[in-house]
Amino acid sequence: MQKELFAIFGNPVSHSLSPLMHNRAFQNLKYKACYTRYLLEDGKKLKDTFLKLGLSGINITVPHKEYAFSACDWLDNFAKRVGAVNTIILRDGELKGYNTDAPGFLRVVEELKSTKEILFLGAGGTASSSAVILKEEGYNVTILNRSKSRLESFKEKGFATYTWEDFTPKSYDLVVNMTSAGLNDNTLPAPKEILEAILKRSNGAVDVIYGKQTPFLNLAKEFNLPTKDGSDMLLYQGVLAFNLFTNGVFEFEEIEEAMRESFLL
Ligand code: NDP
User: Fold this and answer.
1) What is the DSSP string of 77-97?
2) Among protein residues, the one whose CA lies closest to atom 12 of ligand 1
3) Would you call the peptide bond into 103 cis, given omega within 30 degrees of 0 as the criterion?
4) Residues lining ligand 1, Cβ inside 6 A
5) Test site for ligand 1: of 106, 146, 185, most ligand atoms within 8 A of the Cβ
């Protein structure tokens, strides 16, 4: 059998850990495939590029998840509901699109016991798909965002939404930084006074940013809250994508073990 080729498309893409994660899992599970990164500047060229490179599947990162959604010939129901695709596989000549980010995040939340009331700081694409899946699974998600415009679509879906100006802090089982504040700078996702008023009443904090202690997680630690960064979300979305790439032949736990090793490198 010829070696299959997979890739991650994004712009920028050089920072992505996906090649390391997937190659390590291919190697450990003795699956004949290789995974690389591709700098895609123009999202409209996603489908042509995919086919020209002879790929079997891709992951898609910022800023192309919406383009990826429109490039697919077939969409998984959840991807259809959230309008964003981060995994595409080629099957029977068709590009099939899935979203594994939100199911990956759901798994992180499911591992935290006694969690029901959740506050999201941020209202971008990741917050949107994650809020939908959590709501479908019975969690209560409130959205707090810096500006108003992105809150409209959450309101239409039945979420309680606030900006910093009209928010009254209350207690939550989990507070999640869903913004990019702290990714390439040292900013907090909301004014410190608001965060302190929330964190002192809450039971846990998660940041979707991975690989660093963000100012948000540091602040949560000052209130002695249990904290978690975005590494497990990254791992779980990768495991779910790998499962699609390899046609479901491996168990989730088997892939997780094979892939988790890459986090030690
Ligand atoms: P988007 O660009 O779609 O949304 C960004 C959101 O962050 C908006 O709500 C924006 O608010 C808010 N925001 C940005 N900067 C600030 C700031 N300085 N202060 C307060 N709010 C701010 O981003 P994504 O949803 O694509 O990504 C969000 C985060 O999720 C990123 O850090 C990304 O790295 C991470 N991520 C992690 C994954 C993982 O596997 N761990 C997977 C996918 C994403 P406004 O509307 O006011 O502009």
Assistant:
1) HHHHHHT--SEEEEETTEEEE
2) 179
3) no
4) 62, 101, 122-127, 145-147, 150, 178-181, 183, 187, 189, 208-210, 230, 233-234, 237
5) 146
Tens-place pLDDT, residues 130-168:
999 999 999 999 999 999 999 999 999 999 999 999 999
Task: For ligand 1, atom 8, name the residue with the nearest CA.
Answer: 124
Distance of CA 122 from the midpoint of ligand 1 (Å): 6
Q: Considering the chain, what is the average pLDDT of its residues?
A: 97
235 and 178 share a domain? no
Show the domain range for 75.
4-99+231-264
Express each pLDDT in 80-92 by its tens digit.
Answer: 999 999 999 999 9
- State the Cα–Cα distance between residues 179 and 125, nearest whole angstrom: 10
Ligand 1 nearest atom to the CA of residue 122, by list position: 9
- Asked if 235 and 224 sit in the same domain, the reply is no
Q: Among all residues, which ones are annotated catalytic? A: 65
For helices 192-199 and 215-222, what crossing angle results, to 10°? 50
For 7: left if phi > 0, alpha if psi spans -120 to 50, otherwise beta; the answer is: beta
For residue 154, give the nearest of 141, 172, 137, 170 by alpha carbon: 141
- Half-sphere exposure in the Cβ direction for 93 (13 Å, CA): 0
